[in-house]
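Input.
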Amino acid sequence: MPIPVKSLIISWRSIGLSLLIALVVGITAAGEVADRVLDAVVGRLAMRPVSGEVVIVALDERTITQSPSRNFSMTQYANVVEAVDKAGARRLFIDFYFDRREADHDFPRFVSAVKNMGDRIVLAVSTRQVPGREDKVTTFPSKKFGPDVPIASIAVESEFWQVWRVPIAYRAEGKLLPTFASIMAGKSSDTPKSFRLDLSYDTRTITEYSAADLLSGKIGARELAGKDVIFAPTAPSFQDYFYLPGHDRVPGGFIHVIAAETLKRGDPIDIGWLPPLLVAIALTGITLLRRFQRAVLPAIIGTIVILIGGKIVLGTMLVTSWIGAALVYVAAIATNVSRTRRRSSAQRENPVSGLPNFEALRSLPPFGSATVIAAKVVNFEDLAAFIPGDGIGKLVEQVTRRLQLASQGTTLHHDLDGTFAWLVPYYQHSQIEGQLAGLAALFNAPLTIGDLRVDVAIAFGVNDEFEGSNAQRLAAALVAAERAIRTRALWTKYTPRQKDGAGWQLSFHSQLEDALTGGDIWVAFQPQYEIATRRLVGVEALARWTHPTRGPIPPDEFIIQAEKSQDIYRLTLFVMDQAIRSAAELRGRGVHINMSVNLSATLLDHSDLVGTIRVMLTAHHLPPETLTIEITETAQIENSRQARQTLAQLRRTGIRLSIDDYGTGQSNLEYLTEIEADEIKIDKRFVSTMHDSQRNREVVKSTIDLAHRLGAVAVAEGIEDAETMALLASLGCDVGQGYHLGKPQLFSDLIAALTTPPHSRSA
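Output.
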């Protein structure tokens, strides 16, 4: 009986397409990349030692060096053969070919040594690729060895410049030959046949002896008796090196040892790609039923683990499997399941609460005269991260239960992020304020989730405007709820002014670009005076924006929006460049004063910040110690390693650091340990109220004393009158700024003021 389509998580068409893709991958061998990567990983982690039954006698660099004129003569080859024979080796495999040595005067000496070993010696038959062509050239041993000398192929099969397979039997010029590996392992084949190497062998466990030690008598029967010996080149000049997957480059003789060890363990088989694909189909098949949909992800992960683990385990049993097609099938199924789930979650029901979601709300008939109420759980993300297990579901359940008391029979809608909304009919509008006040009272009581008691705050947004689509009216209520959170109000109503503000915010990036290029954003400079001497010691560069239609925009407004829109870095660099350029011009006029620039601590996470400032200083030939960077929002530094590194780099560059607005918000004692500041700026809210508030006066005094103990300069902001100036002087404050000393002004006005006689411009 066929399974109904609706009972499956994905359609039969998706399953069939996934299977078709996997079949194409398997047939075309396109999935072998994954298998080869896994095999290479196995090779890299190889830990299996070789048996030691096969050893290498190497014609290594040391042997070549000790040979006359670095030429290993045929007499020396003969001496190696005789030494191996004398040591009682089981067999000797000569991994050399001598087609260019037959004319040597001592070649007969080598032939004689070979013949004396009889059938215990095997000579190599080499098959090499002709460079630039597909032809292969085979080199058989000289006929001078006689017809009875055993011969074997030393051919290997390379794919992607690596040796993956070695023949058991190899056909060369019509003659079927055994290979070194098959003879050593006692295996044979009546047809040309190859097998996959067992890459789990550790090549470092292969025993290698230098031919020089054999010829000198250091190596003999104790090391070679009863063993198969491969006499092979390892000196770099022979270029007989191969890439073994997962291993470093190894000499050709090592390949023969690994191949022999593989065959000695058993008969390697290759089951191909179809069995793993069938396993993948079986393992994932049942979980595609809707009743088992929660098990789909574990099943997919488990299938991948089984496929990879099975391949590795089978490999240790000399069974080669190809899982690329199976992995493609699993990936295709996972992709279809994921797409279906995303489509399902985008439908009209919230999976956590079971309530209709905002898409369902937007799809209702026009709201008409109904008022839209949006409710947002404050810090919902923090609660979700804090509450363990499925507690967040219980939290949503309890929040939903309390909100349903206010919806009074209307449908409550729930989005994914702790946001709710409902409609209030026109005849209930007068009751809205009372409903929200009642809800606030309900949420004064903590929620109990298991053993936890959780305080939950909630804020509301109201939109009783009748204009706009359902989506626009819902969005407006959400904007009002966000504003209620920011202003810590119980609820706020969406107004046309907020709509204008929203439009300003949405187009802020492009407006900022136009303002920077059009000159609407400019830099004002406010002077700073040494309080004791009334001498000008610095200026602070301040961003200003004169909008062509909105007029002057308060700095707090556009700077906060720049931080939200990620444009603060661009704006800061603009001000920084103008400030450094202006400071350089002042120095050129003989005015040596400090230039201060504000920098939000959020920008300290930019790894290229210091380098950019250095480039600006160098371009304008301004000494770094002339620049003071005022750090705001210092709490951002607390958990940022990059920010602390940036501060250290700024100090090493020679740039001065200042803590701005000290004593308010997020600037406090803790951050004096984070920032090794050259100056501390006392916030104007304390300075301007000193003569009216003894408490604030003590704050200012203690801050000045603290700055001096730390070796920093105390700077007072917001000096509005002579009385405040005198009081600061009596407290020992170093530097001051404010409207009493000078307002922020254009650079041209600053230059003009500096060119007036000193008595005319003193503070």
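Residues 1-6, 758-763 have pLDDT under 50 and may be disordered.
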